[in-house]
Amino acid sequence: MRFHQVKELVAWAADYHRGLAEQYDQLAAGDVNDRVRMALEYLAEHERKMQIELANYLEEESDHRKVLETWFDDPADFPHAPTLDRLTECMSCDSVQDVLSTALTMHRTLQDLYAHRVERASVEAEREFFASLSSGHEAEVRRLARDMQRLEDY
Question: Does residue 51 carry a pLDDT above 60?
Answer without folding.
Answer: yes
